[in-house]
Amino acid sequence: MCGIVGFTGKQNAAPILLEGLKKLEYRGYDSAGIAVENSGVITLSKVSGRIANLCEKTDNGNNIPGYSGIGHTRWATHGAPTDANAHPHMSCDGRFSVVHNGIIENYMALREELHAKGYAFKSETDTEVIVHLVEMYYSGDFREAVMKAVSRLEGSYALGVLCSECPGKIIVAREASPLILGIGVGENYFSSDVTALVAHTRNVLYLDDGEFAELTSESITVYDCTGAAIQKPINRITWSVEAAEKGGYEHFMLKEIMEQPRAVKAALAARMQENQIVLDGFDLSAKQLSRIRKIVITACGSAYYAGCAAKYTIEKLCKIPVDVQLASELRYADPQIDRRTLLIVLSQSGETADTIAAMKECKRRGAQTLAIVNVVGSTIAKLADHTLYTWAGPEIAVATTKGYTTQLSVLYLFCVSAAKTMGYLSDEDYQTLVDHLRELPKKIQQALDMCAAIPQLAAKYHSNHSMFFIGRNTDYAVALEGALKMKEISYIHAEAYAAGELKHGTIALIDEGQPVIALCCNRDVAEKTMNNIVEVKARGAQVLALSLSGNRAISAHADDIIHIPPVDPLFQAAVEIVPLQMLAYYVAKENGCDIDKPKNLAKSVTVE
Ligand code: F6R
């Protein structure tokens, strides 16, 4: 996720762009840049680090005069957060400049094509192909060049393009990334979201997928994908600036929960090319994979629980034993790890101190390392032999949500790909699994749509002092994460238990009214868990069950039921967690907790 802004009018653009970028900084903050057109010349300024660095470099925009411009604040995906990779990107001839939010999935093929035609690349980004395409297609008609360039792109984009030969004009385009146009008086704007606009105007147009627009100081013309001019309704923004930053949601956590279909799509789609999984940072051959005797997954907190859930899928598909270890334990253990161990390190931030220490210890013992990390260029990403980024965009809420589901998604990609490489999957089975993976974003969206009753359920369950989360197999792994979510944001003691273990002690704690959240989604073991529901019900528990839609039997046992859509059991955890995130969120809200900043917790734990 990145933020883009644009302005064209009769005032100096740069200070307005910088103010807008500050408002979008929550969307990404590892580098930033602006490009301003002045009397037919485009001047570029970009720098790694926060927007404050760009303000300093440009004297708050005062040393870049010009009345139209585009700006970008970056959250690195393709290429480290360096000055060269920061946007805007310029064409070789200096006539065009582009800012982009999204991911161009076919950028490698386009890059090769453009390179062969003599276009010189200055960055490692996917975005740079766009500006070279515009230059290649330009023959005097700016809009036509952008439309032709865009017709070559696969993936998601919100774009703003400047052309030195068209002073005061900006072309924007959108596909699967947000883009809003702000209507001023004698000036017009665009932005990734309304936060950057509300200081200037509350009248906006929302572009839809496949649409383009041409902005000048006096007009905005919107075009459909065929190039025909269309009319769009003008909307009035009523949100406060604070609400706008959170996309209109009350908390970043809720916004990030809702973003999961898009985040998981970003993690998956670019790595699925023509029905094949292509892992950018991981290229072990069948021979190398067959030498691996065991996989150790290490991480902390939710990332550790993502590993717990993925263990089942990896063992089933890759037939390699998987040992999931808490990094804080592994670092002081005497682990049986050697050159034949693949260590998978999971971390949203890439900076968790215990995870780094465990990783270093395992590397010292000869393990091969694969990092699955969100923050590009972070310590863990740099330490690893292979890195796969989760491309979830910045996560602001302390409690991770999209961090967890995107880690799982990348782990699923890894194991389907590795199982195929090792010869454990027929072409047909491989194709079925790839198709199921491709459906994950849609399934997550369906799970979100099925959460309508959760606020009422939260109102019913919020005043309890403790909750049990039970399940078996993958349901148990999800229960661990569900209980952590509940604990950390609602401050209710929540304990996850393997349902089959209840009889070995914990059932002694089940009394009249004790809430038990029973996860019954895994078809292979759901019936067994239903027996455990009967046992706790007999002792007076109130049972809130989570089950697949269509499971009628459960209604005879549970007091309340939340459904999720049917999903391939191998990939179910990434969908099943969604209602539990929502439950924790609404329980915390009922209890008046500081949801985005729970007490005693920090987003990145860089000390032991
Ligand atoms: C829980 C949570 C933490 C993190 C853990 C690891 O919601 O966010 O448990 O998962 O601190 O952090 P990363 O993934 O940054 O290594």
What would you note in describing this structure?
The chain has 608 residues and is of the alpha/beta class. It contains 20 helices and 27 strands. The strands form five sheets. The chain has an eight-stranded antiparallel sheet with strand order 3-2-4-1-10-9-11-15, covered by helices on one side. Helix 18 links the parallel strand 23 (466-471) and strand 24. Helix 8 (260-269) packs antiparallel against helix 16 (440-449). It is globular and about 80 Å long. The mean pLDDT is 94. The structure holds fructose -6-phosphate (F6R). Fructose -6-phosphate binds at residues 300-303, 347-349, 352, 355, 399-400, 403, 484, 488, 604-605.
Would you spell out the secondary-structure blueprint of this structure?
Blueprint: E1 3-8, H1 13-23, E2 31-38, E3 41-48, H2 51-57, E4 68-74, E5 89-90, E6 96-101, H3 107-116, H4 128-137, H5 142-151, E7 157-163, E8 170-175, E9 180-183, E10 188-191, E11 203-206, E12 212-215, E13 220-223, E14 229-230, E15 235-236, H6 241-245, H7 252-258, H8 260-269, E16 272-273, E17 276-277, H9 286-290, E18 294-299, H10 301-318, E19 322-326, H11 327-330, E20 341-347, H12 353-364, E21 368-373, H13 379-383, E22 386-389, H14 402-421, H15 427-438, H16 440-449, H17 454-461, E23 466-471, H18 474-490, E24 493-498, E25 515-520, H19 526-538, E26 542-548, E27 560-564, H20 573-590
Parallel strand pairs: 18-19, 18-20, 20-21, 21-22, 23-24, 23-25, 25-26, 26-27
Antiparallel strand pairs: 1-4, 1-10, 2-3, 2-4, 5-6, 6-7, 7-8, 8-12, 9-10, 9-11, 11-15, 12-13, 13-14, 16-17
